[in-house]
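Quick one: structure tokens for this chain, please?
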Amino acid sequence: LVSKETGKKFDFILADLGVSSMQIDNPDRGFSYKVEGPLDLRMNPQKGDSAADRLKEVSYEELVGMLVENSDEPYAEEIAKVIMNWRKKGKAIETTTQLKAAIEEALRVVPQAERKEMVKKSCQRTFQALRIDVNSEFEVLYAFLEKLPEVLAPNGRVAILTFHSGEDRLVKR
């Protein structure tokens, strides 16, 4: 947009794909499994469906795919099964702590000695996968990457800070 308005191209572009700590630290935004809050995860809370709404409509196959593609979650099937079972029982996942509880239930298959650490990592990956989904983050990143040749000056440079393997794969391609 800036390049079009000015008619100039950029010599250097820096993209930081990280999530703001202000969002993570605010329990009302639902970005953290560590504190009770609504399961929202939207960058713009006025736009689109929340993560809670998404979990009410997603199919088992879509949820497994989301967890694998967006966060490489090794317990994707187990987590998806528990979420679907909760839904069948009329138990909606509306809060961050409810989603954590569902993940804890799904990871009962993990030996007790390893479970606490695995739950922590699976919570991080599941929240990440849902956040990516509700904000269409990969689609936005792909659109950004497609526009780079149009806005980068000859011999220009691009630096992109990625924070997980999904972003990394897309940027490297």
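The first strand starts at residue 10 and ends at 16.
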